[in-house]
């Protein structure tokens, strides 16, 4: 019986001893710690869910007002500028589109004045140019001195330096000398062409041209009908020129054939409503680097098949929420290098979007549910953000199709919330569970949670050049499966001091984490103890609940009587024995 009691005590001691390790074993410190803050944050989210949108809209409205003021101020400055810059259209056929500016009267007056002044000069220039044609594709007659190399349906006229006083080619009015040549690609990039005139762009060969590259010239004027004979033109590049406005009529003649149009990096300040109307086959449009002041949904009217739109470096601080309303098929949007500091709602709520690039913008954090629920986004690019410091709880929730996420080169990024992707707690289907590519390299992270995403699903994972803290929480990154073969920069530990500058791939888990050492050596015996304790606890519970313990206790209580009688008996026996023993001596 006393042995039973001792055994019970032993069980209790073991239970007390093993209880703690069991907890640590199963939950891991990372998660155990996270439990508390998570609850707090999640309840906060529920409040936020209602509040955020209204706050957003208010913020936006404020900003719209602010930027309007700024725009009006700018307008006056720019008008002064225009006085110097503006020249009249080269031909009377081409009445200048009335620009939608604040002060149309003032504008008109100015224009008249300038027109008078410059008209004479203009006319002279024009006549001179009219008859100047150059022979091109003339290898047979000129050999190495040929103008433009023409071969395999490609006409290569880029960056031509002329021998005479015209340093750069300044006209597209070329006479193609090669027989039976069909220029499907005409490349006039990097020249000094200033205007595109009616019937003076590759005369006679227009219908063959499918791809026309006029980028990096100084084109300022285009006749309305200049592209009329280009009945096969599908790809037109007018980027990096001096265009200040775009007339709808210019594209009217090529509206069914045009697939790709680049008018980026010109000096376009406004686009009239419906300027692209009828370009029903246009799938790709670049408007990058233009100082367009007012963005309205009407400017995109008629682009029913547009899939890709690029508006990089347009100084956008915010966008009208309905800007993309007329773009039902828009799936790829680039907004790089714009100074907005909130994800525009026009982007967050655009259902058809699959790929968005908001790199090099002034975003400071990715907030809870930054993208609208049930988004179809597959790729988000957020690199080189000068101010991005945190991805908050559920920042990338509601993106079940997200495959590629680039968060690299963000020098201020210090926090990636353990629940950023909704893996720890979010509504069903809100997890970003399709992620295959995650770039976090060249940022300022020292910790990411082991439970943040399903790392086994990643095909590409870059974490190099971050100040990783190598301890129990990041120990999982040391595992073999994260050998970071694809990282250009192998990740290193920054802290603790003992592991500083050691490559993650070479640090042993037991050096980074004491607990790992303990588990490593005696993990099995701890597990065994835990199991034993579990059994004993169950046994104990059974004994208590079935009343056997009570019986045992009662039996234990009775024992002193038994012992007493035993002792008495024993005493008697001993007495008897002692009584008896001396006798033989006597005998
Ligand atoms: C240009 O050529 C046309 C004939 O093609 C001629 O009538 C006209 O006078 C020429 N203009 C100049 C300025 O040489
Ligand atoms: C035209 O030539 C330039 C310079 O070689 C090149 O960068 C560009 O890609 C060419 N354009 C096309 C459409 O091939
Ligand atoms: C127009 O382009 C198509 C291919 O897009 C080509 O098959 C056809 O021959 C071209 N037409 C001319 C006149 O070059
Ligand atoms: C362009 O669009 C028209 C309808 O507007 C369509 O009939 C035609 O097939 C399209 N062409 C191409 C090359 O996609
Ligand atoms: C955006 O960031 C740039 C520097 O990266 C700064 O010059 C600019 O003032 C910022 N713009 C806004 C609107 O915050």
From TrEMBL:
Q: Which residues cross the membrane?
A: 525-544
Where does this protein have compositionally biased stretches of type Basic residues? 91-114
Q: Give start-end ranges for the coiled-coil region(s).
A: none
Q: Which InterPro entries does the annotation name? A: Cys-rich_flank_reg_C, Leu-rich_rpt, Leu-rich_rpt_typical-subtyp, LRR_dom_sf, LRR_TM_domain-containing
For this record, the Gene Ontology CC terms, alphabetical, are:
plasma membrane
The UniProt keyword set, sorted, is: Leucine-rich repeat, Membrane, Repeat, Signal, Transmembrane, Transmembrane helix
Q: Where is the segment annotated Disordered?
A: 41-138, 567-587
The secretion signal range is 1-18
An example of a Pfam family matching this protein is LRR_8
PROSITE patterns on file: LRR
- Regions of compositional bias (Acidic residues) in chain numbering: 72-87, 119-130
Ranges for domain LRRCT come to 466-514
Q: Which domain of life is it from?
A: Eukaryota
Q: What is this protein called?
A: LRRCT domain-containing protein
Native species of this protein?
Caenorhabditis nigoni
Gene giving rise to this polypeptide: Cni-lron-7
């Amino acid at each position: 019986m006393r042995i039973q009691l001792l055994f019970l005590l032993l069980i209790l001691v073991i239970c007390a001893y093993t209880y703690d390790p069991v907890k640590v074993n199963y939950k891991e410190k990372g998660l155990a710690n996270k439990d508390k803050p998570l609850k707090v944050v999640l309840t906060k989210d529920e409040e936020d869910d209602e509040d955020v949108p209204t706050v957003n809209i208010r913020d936006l409205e404020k900003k719209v007002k602010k930027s309007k003021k700024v725009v009006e101020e700018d307008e006056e400055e720019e008008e002064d500028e225009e006085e110097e810059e503006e020249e009249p259209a080269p031909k009377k056929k081409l009445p200048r589109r009335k620009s939608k500016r604040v002060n149309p009267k003032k504008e008109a007056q100015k224009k008249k004045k300038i027109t008078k002044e410059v008209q004479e000069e203009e006319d002279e220039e024009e006549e001179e140019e009219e008859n100047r044609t150059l022979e091109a594709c003339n290898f047979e007659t000129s050999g190495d001195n040929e103008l433009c190399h023409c071969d395999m349906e490609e006409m290569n006229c880029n960056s031509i330096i002329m021998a005479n006083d015209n340093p750069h080619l300044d006209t597209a009015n070329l006479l193609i000398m090669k027989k039976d040549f069909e220029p499907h690609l005409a490349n006039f990039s990097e020249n000094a062409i200033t205007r595109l005139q009616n019937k003076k762009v590759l005369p006679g060969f227009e219908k063959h041209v499918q791809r026309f590259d006029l980028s990096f010239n100084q084109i300022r004027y285009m006749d309305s009908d200049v592209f009329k004979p280009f009945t096969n033109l599908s790809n037109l590049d007018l980027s990096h020129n001096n265009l200040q406005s775009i007339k709808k009529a210019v594209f009217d003649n090529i509206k069914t054939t045009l697939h790709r149009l680049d008018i980026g990096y010109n000096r376009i300040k406004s686009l009239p409503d419906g300027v692209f109307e009828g370009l029903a086959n246009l799938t790709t449009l670049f408007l990058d680097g233009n100082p367009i002041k007012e963005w309205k949904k009407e400017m995109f009217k008629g682009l029913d098949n547009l899939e890709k739109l690029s508006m990089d470096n347009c100084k956008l601080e915010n966008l009208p929420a309905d800007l993309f309303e007329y773009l039902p098929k828009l799936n790829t949007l680039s907004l790089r290098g714009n100074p907005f500091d909130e994800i525009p709602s026009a982007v967050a709520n655009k259902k058809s979007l699959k790929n968005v690039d908001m790199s090099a913008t002034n975003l400071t954090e990715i907030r809870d549910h930054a993208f609208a629920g049930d988004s179809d986004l597959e790729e988000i690019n957020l690199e080189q953000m000068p101010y991005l410091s945190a991805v908050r709880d559920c920042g990338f929730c509601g993106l079940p199709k997200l495959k590629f996420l680039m968060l690299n080169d963000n020098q201020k990024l210090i926090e990636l919330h353990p629940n950023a992707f909704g893996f720890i707690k979010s509504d069903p289907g809100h997890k970003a569970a399709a992620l295959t590519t995650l770039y976090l390299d060249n940022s300022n992270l020292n910790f990411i949670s082991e439970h943040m995403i399903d790392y086994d699903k990643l095909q590409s994972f870059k974490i190099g050049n971050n100040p990783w803290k190598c301890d129990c929480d990041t120990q999982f990154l040391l595992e073999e499966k994260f050998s970071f073969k694809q990282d250009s920069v192998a990740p290193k530990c920054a802290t603790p001091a003992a592991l500083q500058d050691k490559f993650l791939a070479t640090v042993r888990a037991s050096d980074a984490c004491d607990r790992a050492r303990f588990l490593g050596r005696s993990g099995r015996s701890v597990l065994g103890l835990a199991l034993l304790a579990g059994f004993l606890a169950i046994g104990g519970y059974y004994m208590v609940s079935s009343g056997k313990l009570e019986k045992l206790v009662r039996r234990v209580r009775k024992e002193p009587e038994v012992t007493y009688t035993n002792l008495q008996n024993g005493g008697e026996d001993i007495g008897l024995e002692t009584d008896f023993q001396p006798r033989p001596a006597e005998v």
